[in-house]
Every structure is written in C-alpha cells, then in structure tokens.
Amino acid sequence: MISDHQLHVHVTNDPVYSENGMTIYMHPGGPCWIIDPGLPPQAEEIMAHVQKESLDVQAIMLTHAHADHIAGIDAVRETLGPLPVFLAKEEWAALSDPMENLSGLMDAGFVTRVEDPKDLPPGSTFDLDGIEWLMLDTAGHSPGGRTFYSRALNIAIVGDALFAGSIGRVDFPHSDGAKLMANIHEHLMSLPDETRVLSGHGPETTIGRERTTNPYILHGL
C-alpha cells in the first residue's frame, strides 16, 4: 500500500493480466471508492481490506469496462450490497455484452449483473471524503475511458490510457488511436509534471517522466 497526502491506495493484482484493482480512501474507517475490481482473487482481497480498515464503500468507479477491470463487480456487490457503479455511458453495453467487454473474443463470455450504471461525464466532479475528483476524457483505448484526477492530491488514476513508458492498446474493437493520443496530450500532458500517474497495469509513474521519456508521447503511434 502506498500513501500520499493522507490518500491511501490499496492495490490488488489478478494473476492473469496483473490488472491494478484499487481501493482509495483518506483514512481508515472513512469513505472509500473501489476502482476497477478485476479477476479473482481481487474481489476477495478488496473486501478483506475494506473489512480490515473498517471502510465505508461509497461506490465502484470504473475507468473503463474491459473484462479485466469489471470481473469482480458482482462478487463485491454480493457481499457489500447494491453499491452504485459509475462508468461512462459510452461503455454501459460492455457490462452485459461479452463482445463489448472483449471477453467474447477469448470465448469467456463474461457479463455482470449491473442493471443501473451511472454516468461519468467529462468535466464532472465527485467528492470523496472532502476531496474533489475531476473526470477527464481519456477515451481511445476504449470508447469511454476516464481518468480520475485530484488536483489537491496531485494524482491521476488513468486506467489503461497511459502506462509507464507506453499507452493503452488501440487494436481492439472500438479503439481509436488518434482519439487516445489527442486525449492524452490535451487532458493528461496538460497536468503538472509532478502529478502521480496510477495506471491500470504496471508501476506508477509521473506526468513529467512520461512527457520526457515515453516514446508514444514523444513520437506518436
């Protein structure tokens, strides 16, 4: 677990894709968000941590809806109750369509039981324990990719839009490489250099590091 300016980020990884499922909160016993709960055993590990820290789960927040980022939703809700699930409306279909969430391409046929997702419009803000988070449009890897950005905490949770030394894949159905690059440059590279970047896979990085070393930022696709 890492912390910065009192923000706690508990990260779990699945054994297949090493997807970073996160639980974020300002202090033990306080409200939290569960972000991108993925394949087993992530849901179980997340719920164990929630119980250990006596957290009050406010919502499941999704950066996007590829299967490795949503596979743990039902297990979490079965245990913790009908938590609201926030996801850009452009990807609501992926919650119930295996081809949209890509699991159908691998003969997995995975869907969730979420019937009432809530939108994450670009530019909207959400409050977690007194901290404002701004929803940034980082679509391109997927149709409605979102980054959760806190100016106060200097942190951007970017999903699969940007990685340390790389960017999200754009060879999937509904991916758009030009849109992803435009959104990265407009909405991420405009952030302060010291902004911590927490990605959906791999280690954390900073905007400044990616601005000066990431080959896709420097040279494009």
Question: Can you walk me through this structure?
Answer:
This protein has 221 residues and is α+β, with helices and mostly antiparallel strands. The protein has one domain (2-107, 114-219): Metallo-beta-lactamase, Chain A (4-Layer Sandwich). Helices cover 21% and strands 27% of the residues. The protein contains six helices and 14 strands. The strands form three sheets. The protein has a six-stranded mixed beta sheet, covered by helices on one side. It is globular and about 45 Å long. The termini are far apart.
- Report low-confidence residues grouped into runs of 5 or more: none
Reported by name, the CATH topology is: Metallo-beta-lactamase, Chain A
Give the ordered list of helices and strands: EEEEHEHHEEEEEEEHEEHH
Distance between the termini: 33 Å
Proportion of β residues? 25-35%
Radius of gyration: 16 Å
Biggest sheet descriptor: 6 strands, mixed
